[in-house]
Design brief:
Chain lengths: 340, 529
């Protein structure tokens, strides 16, 4: 919002305030549109929570189905349900999961730390390793080391994540016994805070690695092609002609320009990562948001699902802002005007 | 005669046994006290109150927290639970239960006959569909003194005594639920029962931690200090957990069938399929009897002849289970084996199809049928494929359609299907678990696990009804034998497999599976060594 550095001036201040206000209105409108769409999509799926409960308990009668539907408010007209959903959105009320008998906000808050830890770690690993490897491949384009790196990243990209996860478990947990096979922390052991941090880190290693593989491959390949493209541009030749050291050229000129597409793509993917990663969380029994979302879909737990969608959409919008800010920091040519 | 049989006799004779001789109160020789049991709970239950939620995982775990009046042996005969003895009046209307003294809830408050009456008449009738079916037959429930409960029925109902296991009739505290909205009571989060274990911590998505209930009424129980139920959603990870000794027990579908043979070779584990007698899961090919050609008995019989159950058992379930021959499981007391046999015979199947005029057209296809694959996991997809192959051989072209649970339940319960497979529990008595799928009075649109195929036969209705209210065991047996013969001849469904589920038990564990409800039992007598 205030990413724009403006010279303080009379008219300028008002303009800024108006810009912020316009942005806020847009933000609320986008959230409401998303909320409406997610309501329609969620409700378009066949079946309802009462049917699911009946299917899972192996016994049902009319009374149970009616009770459950009443609890979920499904006995009211569709439009009334949508209106009350939007009202909850505007009052920042995420609702209540009748199925789990807990407020949705509590369910989300429980899962958020584990999710952010896993996806954040995986994302950083993928970003840093991807940029480094991509750059190395780019500046050595055509040589054997480039070929090797390209093959590795292609393999990582093509490997199904659950298979990679299981292979890592077989190697590091079952065969070598170095790392735990699944879980978030060792259960049933009293630990000092430091031990606990270490324990969570060892549990985090394999799932984070599995999750980062695909993203690492994407960033590496993107970085490589971007580096090759930038290297052949005139200003690099100029820099060389000026007699700048190779290291300085790579860091100051090539990287700074080549990294832009990676930032764009990573920014888009960061949003998706906040939602957790269903497959990795399942393989490693990681108590994250991805599994919660997946289960809520299967169980038609509407309040949980809509709550997650809402939080996710807000986070994605915020992350887009952050991406824009990073973009501006790297590339001064980008202005608010062209960004909007 | 061992101690257990003696106690059973005492109980059956209505002798109010003292706390020393009743079954399960004796300190078994050479059992260690203490230790931790790690096992699996999958999928994670939404809540732990079995009175409100009857999903499989809830029942498995809830059996440690909530108890009922009775328990059931492998032969499904009742054994003492919270009740140390019981009596049935000769006319089959009056059931009198005597409770053990000194039973306490996890919050320290005593459990008395008032809690039993409240649980059955106020809570379960309101919240538990399966219990509702039985307990709405009660005319009045009384608690003449703190240790006596008397139920008087409107008319005799033979399986009444089969309805007091911890999954059907869990006893909840009156002082917590009285006058509240049972489903929304905040105390549900704490799940307060009388069982040997109480809830200490539930880290969602990770594990549920149960610890010893110090005030447990059975002397010396529980042996274990604590139980961890770990949520492990991925089947491969569950197998790894078992192999590495992270868990010492698995149940139901924790281990995939294809992994059973491999894990059976592990020296530190024992595998048993016992402990599912009360549920006796029965698997069948479900055909919508309202839709042509399924409305023709000959077509359904042809399907039954076309499926090689033995091959199915071997290929799909890797040898676990038993070929089903009719609507009643051979694991239950009223099984009749002398019924029409549907041996595997493609010729018989084709002859029946020819006879009804369903001739093969282009490419040998007679008819195309849509088959809904149930959403309970990989194995159901395999079943669907097996059935498609089998029926394809006689010219019945099966199109598989996958759905998730909500979609499947919606379609099947509203009769918008042609074929699917279904798995139902027998629940200890045909009147509880079997008749519901065949009697006309239970054809109820929108209700899952009612009589969804739409089979209707007045004679069958009459026999099931008579057998449910008959008080004489021999009479019941005769009625059930008759009805089984008719139903198998009519073949509304094609019964496939009496499913077995593997329990892998660490050899150091004692007394894990000791009754017909197996892993749902209290685990009060389970010990490590």
């Amino acid at each position: 919002m205030s990413m724009v550095t403006l010279k303080a001036g009379g008219g300028r201040g008002i303009a800024t305030a108006l810009a912020v206000l316009a942005w806020a209105v847009k933000f609320v409108a986008v959230v409401l549109v998303i909320a409406t769409f997610s309501f329609i999509i969620v409700r378009a799926a066949p079946g309802d929570p009462a049917q699911v409960m009946a299917g899972q308990t192996g016994a049902a009668d009319e009374q149970m189905l009616a009770q459950l539907r009443q609890e979920y408010g499904l006995d009211k007209p569709y439009v009334v349900q949508l209106a009350s959903h939007l009202k909850r959105v505007l009052t920042l009320d995420l609702g209540y999961s009748y199925r789990q008998q807990r407020p949705v906000i509590a369910l989300l808050a429980e899962r958020m730390p584990a999710t952010l830890l896993l996806t954040g770690t995986a994302f950083l690993v993928a970003l840093i390793a991807g940029i480094v490897l991509g750059t190395l491949a780019g500046i050595r384009a055509g040589r054997w080391s480039d070929t090797f790196l390209s093959v590795v990243s292609l393999l990582l990209y093509a490997m199904p994540v659950f298979w990679l996860g299981l292979m890592l478990v077989l190697l590091f947990s079952v065969q070598l016994d170095w790392l735990p096979a699944f879980g978030y922390v060792t259960i049933g052991v009293e630990m000092s805070p430091l031990r606990r941090v270490f324990d969570i880190a060892t549990h985090l290693a394999l799932p984070a690695l599995s999750l980062s593989a695909v993203y690492l491959a994407i960033y590496a390949r993107l970085m490589r092609s971007s580096v090759i493209e930038v290297m052949h541009q005139d200003f690099i030749k100029t820099a060389r002609a000026k007699g700048l050291a190779q290291g300085r050229i790579i860091a100051r000129h090539i990287l700074r320009n080549a990294i832009l597409p990676v930032v764009t793509v990573a920014g888009m993917q960061a949003g998706a990562l906040v939602g957790g990663a269903v497959v990795v969380e399942t393989v490693f029994a990681w108590p994250g948001l991805g599994r919660l979302t997946y289960d809520a879909v299967l169980q038609r737990d509407y309040p949980v699902l809509l709550g997650i969608f809402l939080v996710m959409s807000v986070l994605v919008i915020v992350l887009n802002l952050v991406t824009d800010a990073i973009y501006r920091a790297i590339d001064p040519r980008v202005t608010t005007r062209s960004a909007s | 005669m061992n101690r257990r049989e003696f106690a059973k006799l005492m109980a059956a004779a209505g002798v109010a046994g003292g706390t020393e001789i009743s079954w399960g109160l004796s300190r078994a020789v050479g059992q260690t006290r203490g230790g931790t049991l790690n096992t699996i709970i999958q999928p994670e239950p939404p809540i732990l109150v079995t009175a409100i939620n009857q999903q499989q995982p809830t029942l498995t775990l809830g059996g440690k927290i909530y108890e009922s009046l009775l328990r059931y042996g492998f032969d499904l005969k009742p054994m003492p639970g919270l009740a140390q003895s019981w009596e049935v009046s000769p006319d089959g209307l009056k059931y009198t239960f005597k409770l053990f003294p000194n039973i306490t809830f996890h919050d320290g408050k005593p459990m008395t006959s008032a809690d039993v009456v409240f649980s059955v008449m106020t809570v379960l009738l309101e919240t538990h569909p399966r219990a509702r079916g039985t307990f709405q037959r009660i005319d009045k429930a009384e608690a003449p003194d703190p240790l006596t409960v008397v139920f008087t029925l409107k008319q005799p109902f033979a399986p009444f005594l089969s309805s007091f296991d911890c999954t059907t009739a869990p006893i909840v505290p009156k002082h917590i639920y009285e006058g509240t909205d049972i489903r929304k009571n905040p105390a549900n989060a704490q799940a307060i029962g009388t069982g040997p274990f109480k809830l200490k911590e539930w880290v969602r998505g990770s594990h549920i931690h149960l610890v010893r209930h110090e005030g447990y009424y059975r002397q010396g129980e529980p042996f274990l200090d604590e139980i961890y139920y770990r949520v492990i959603p991925d089947a491969a990870s569950r197998s790894v957990a078992l192999e590495k000794g992270i868990v010492q027990l698995t149940q139901w579908t924790d281990v995939e069938f294809f992994d059973v043979a491999r894990l059976q070779k592990l020296p530190n584990l024992e595998m048993t399929t016992k402990g599912y007698e009360f549920f006796a899961p029965h698997l069948w090919l479900d055909m919508n009897n309202r839709v042509a050609p399924m409305n023709d008995k000959r077509f359904r019989q042809a399907c039954s002849h076309a499926i090689d159950r033995t091959a199915m058992k071997q290929r799909v379930f890797f040898g676990l289970g038993k070929e089903a021959t009719g609507p009643v499981s051979s694991k239950t007391p009223f099984y009749e084996k002398n019924v029409k046999q549907y041996d595997y015979s493609l010729d018989k199947a084709k002859a029946l199809l020819d006879d009804m005029g369903l001739k093969p057209g282009a490419g040998g296809k007679r008819v195309t049928i849509n088959f809904l694959v149930p959403p309970y996991g990989e194995i159901w997809q395999r079943m669907g494929e097996f059935i498609r192959q089998s029926l394809g051989r006689v010219g019945i072209d099966i199109v598989l359609q996958g759905l998730d649970l909500a979609g499947w339940a919606e379609r099947v319960s509203n009769w918008e299907y042609e074929m699917t497979v279904n798995l139902l529990y027998q629940l200890g008595d045909p009147a509880l678990g079997v008749s519901r799928s065949y009697v006309s009075s239970n054809i109820r649109k929108g209700v899952l696990f009612s009589n969804m195929a739409g089979y209707s036969n007045p004679e069958v209705d009459r026999l099931f009804e008579e057998a449910a209210v008959a008080t004489d065991e021999a009479k019941r047996r005769e009625l059930y034998s008759q009805v089984q013969k008719i139903v198998v001849e009519d073949c509304p469904l094609a019964w496939l497999i009496e499913q077995d589920f593997p329990n892998f038990v660490d050899k150091r564990l004692k007394n894990v599976v000791t009754s017909g409800i197996g892993v749902h039992d209290t685990f009060g007598r389970v010990s490590l060594g």
